[in-house]
Specification:
Layout lengths: L4 E7 L6 H10 L6 E6 L7 H4 L6 E5 L9 H13 L6 E5 L6 H10 L1 H6 E11 L3 H7 L1 H9 L2 E5 L6 H14 L4 E4 L18 H7 L16 E8 L5 H15 L3 E8 L6 E8 L2 E9 L8 E8 L3 H9 L4
Parallel strand pairs: 1-4, 1-5, 2-3, 2-4, 5-6, 6-7
Antiparallel strand pairs: 8-12, 9-10, 9-12, 10-11
Helix pairs in contact: 6-7
The protein binds guanosine-5'-triphosphate.
The site of guanosine-5'-triphosphate has 22 residues, from α1 and β10.
Organism: Microvirga thermotolerans
GO molecular function, one term: nucleotide binding
Keywords: Chaperone, Hydrolase, Nucleotide-binding
Amino acid sequence: MTDKIPVTVLTGYLGAGKTTLLNRILTEPHGKKYAVIVNEFGEIGIDNELVVGADEEVFEMNNGCICCTVRGDLIRILDGLMKRKGKFDAIIVETTGLADPAPVAQTFFMDQDVADAARLDAVVTVADAKWLSDRLKDAPEAKNQIAFADVIVLNKIDLVTPEELDAVEARIRAINPYARLHRTQNCAVPLAEVLDRKAFDLDRIIELEPDFLEEGHHHHHDEEMQSVSVKVDGEVDPEKFMPWISNLTQVQGPNILRCKGIVAFPNEPRRFVFQGVHMILDGDVQGEWKPGEKRDSKVVFIGRDLDEKAIREGFLACAA
Ligand SMILES: Nc1nc2c(ncn2[C@@H]2O[C@H](COP(=O)(O)OP(=O)(O)OP(=O)(O)O)[C@@H](O)[C@H]2O)c(=O)[nH]1
């Protein structure tokens, strides 16, 4: 039992702050070596490039939700990691914001090879203090992520009033009174509160979901949720790109749950990285393009009722 590798499953709805927390974990001086598995919903991999610390081994699973189509991939990656036991101290799995954590957690009990070598340490859910109450109304995944959590990081407290914060915490407590909860800005939580908690409680989960240990768990996705990925083969013109992205998120903000991208500007040695949650947009130049790396520009939008054609044409028209 004791030499099983601890696995932390990091979950939370789109844009809540999972990558922010992951980067915090990877950059703090903990002297540990983590293997990281990142799963995202869009077809173009962007998240893995936003994870800092090039020394970490990041395994990427695109094109599907970790809890459904790519569960086989997860098992294969975990099996591969187990064979190299001793090379790292723990595994962190960051799921897409649209994943139901139950089938992910299930993998650590149902697959014998995985169960023999790894133990699920905790499900850590990052919750967006500003948007969670809305998502609890329209996104069943958001509720499951809260229900399954052993630790909840209630993040973005800077974007709400103290009264709103109390109200969202009360909503969370009504769904999950057991998890430890930390209120944070930029996921600033002591790592010991997140890692190696030995917190996953199978009995509680079986009470919540009696068929947890049975095969055939079906997870129904939000059918309307779509992702649009567009790539420009080369650089984009900031004079065109900036007004386009800011106008798009202002006008389509309510439908755009999440957007992110990495773009190349002419004569700029660094990559421009932008991220948005609804109409709140954030962008900065960071990290130089590597020598010999192709300076392509890519964006991903996730949301409902997206006008794919307009987004595609709009971004392609920003080409430098
Ligand atoms: N104002 C504010 N912004 C934050 C905070 N934490 C994270 N953000 C921003 O919120 C955006 C989303 O953060 P991420 O860490 O990428 O969220 P995520 O959950 O990994 O997103 P997905 O992987 O797309 O689901 C980024 O622009 C962050 O800089 C916070 O406490 N306050």
